[in-house]
Amino acid sequence: MEWETVYKEKLAHLQSLNDAFNQSTIVAITDASGVITYVNDKFCEISGYSREELIGQTHRLINSGYHPPSFFRNMWNTIKGGKVWNGECKNRAKNGSFYWVKTVIVPFLDEQARSQQFVSIRTDITDRVKVEAALRESQALYQLMAENTSDLIVSFDRMGILRSIFSTRGQSMSLMEKSILEWVHADDRSRIKDILNSILENNQVEQFEVRLLRRNGAWGTFLTRCLPVPDSQGRVERVVAILQDISHSRWVEQILFDITHGIMSETGESFFSSFVEHLAKALGMEIALIAAKKGNDALEVVSHFIQGSPEKSFSYPIKDTPCEQVLLGKKLVHATKVQANYPSNPLFRKLAVESYMGTPLIDSRGNVIGVLAIMSQMPLTHYHLLEPVLIIFSSRASAELERREREREAWYMAYHDALTGLPNRRKFQEQLE
What pTM value is reported for the model? Predict the structure, then answer.
């Protein structure tokens, strides 16, 4: 079927992004006070701290002491003001070593435009910083450092003609003597020409993002730092460019933007239907749902999106479903063969569900009040890429679900006797009217 072919193509693309994401992207979530509430495996790996050591701490734990207090004041004022902060930070690992990260911090705001939590997406740029330092000290070390960095490093002359290319795989000759602009996406060429001219004229370092053509024919977004190399007269004769593929980070940021933009103005019941629709479409899932806990043995599906359209709500028992585990406060992933694990689940059979990912929805008192889940008819091979997105938006879903329950409680108290639970005079009067 055509949709299966399209889905498989998207899945293959997501898998490649997933591999890159897990190898190079560092994700952390903090509350409004800056206390860490979530970190991914890469954060633990690069910092040397375990997840247990990081959760509940602030980023002071990895402060290197390199940046002045004004650096962090500016960062904090920016994100508390509801704006995205971009920058580069030098951090200190548990073993005392230092590492550099390019950081994007995205604030998530509540309905009163107050900061609710902050999501940090970081890329390790330690190798790039080391290479730049080595280049400044001695251009003779250029080739040695280039062969030992994870970044792609190229040099080109004043005409933009490539003269050398280095990567972890060694020097590549296939693009030598060609213009660097042949790599650049057509929509970016005019801007890049202006930047290169500025480097040549002003003998200054420039950093920018650009879409470049990869060997496999696909376009990728690269963080690029260009360093001018002047001759003895001070005239720039060559430029060294250090490139780092950040396509996976940009993809995650785009998902966050798409979902956030889609639900920004939604509250109440309209939030739930809008949220599951945007979540399913952004993540490429056939099914997404929000369900509220109903007693101790059932869930009420508040809203769900199935194969391109919203569906009516319904209730179902949690026994012999993955939601039974999620309601215990555990994130759960069945990357494949979920039907085999839950053979008595009629919904899975009816919708041909193959994979499942769910996270608990927790209210302000720490109680599990529901479930946020996504499902697919194909194996979920890219779940590591999707997990941070699900966790990020679960807090907003939890807040809306808690508010929904409080409104229901208030309505019930207004129309029912506090002692007997029977409808009161006000309810009968409104029915008569």
Answer: 0.53
Q: What are the angstrom distances between the C-alpha of 313 and each of 29, 263, 292?
A: 31, 20, 11
pLDDT at 92: 95
Q: 43-51 long-range CB contacts below 8 Å, 24 or more apart?
A: 43/122, 46/93, 46/99, 46/101, 46/124, 47/91, 47/93, 47/94, 48/93, 48/94, 48/95, 49/94
Per-residue pLDDT tens digits for 88-112: 999 999 999 999 999 999 888 877 7
d(C-alpha 196, C-alpha 202), whole Å:
10
**Angstrom distance (rounded) from CA 127 to CA 133:** 10
In three-state secondary structure terms, 178 is coil
CA distance linking residue 341 with residue 323, whole number of Å: 13
Tokens of 201: 């004229």
Token digits for 195? Answer: 């930047």
Query: Which residues lie closer than 8 Å to 13 by C-beta, 6 or more apart?
Result: none
**What stretches of 28-141 show up as alpha helix (H) in DSSP?**
41-47, 51-54, 69-80, 126-137
pLDDT at 174: 47
Task: Give the tens place of pLDDT for each residue, 124-166.
Answer: 888 888 777 655 544 443 444 444 444 678 888 888 888 877 7
Higher pLDDT, 74 or 383: 74
Q: Give the Cα separation of 338 and 328 in Å (integer).
A: 19
Q: Give the total residue count for the chain.
A: 433
User: Does 257 or 305 have the greater pLDDT score?
Assistant: 305
The DSSP string of 224-288 is EEEEEEE-TTS-EEEEEEEEEE-HHHHHHHHHHHHHHHHHTT--HHHHHHHHHHHHHHHHT-SEE
Q: Residue 100 and residue 92: Cα distance in Å, rounded?
A: 9
CB-count burial class (<10 Å; 0-12, 13-18, 19+) for 399: middle
Residue 306 bridge partners (DSSP): 287, 309
Radius of gyration of the chain from its Cα atoms, rounded to whole angstroms: 26
